[in-house]
Amino acid sequence: MVAPSHDEEAELEASKAPLLEHLVELRNRIIHSMIAFFLAFLVFTLRIIRRGPSGLPAHALPSGSLKRGLRPEIAGVQPYLAGGE
Most buried among 12, 66, 72, 74, using CB within 10 Å? Predict the structure, then answer.
């Protein structure tokens, strides 16, 4: 194994950031991620509200149960679930 030269060691020492700098960077990244998530949530929520129930797929309409909207023929298990032989 080759030992690092004095110049390489000095370069590594100069590039090391203290723990506090790393924590500040992490905090900034978390804040930016939360802002991006909130904006995406807001945009998609407003799109759904603007479209109204007519723009939703049939299985997503408020029918009281999702099972009613998921028909056996959709899942490809028609004979078993439909009671047919």
Answer: 72
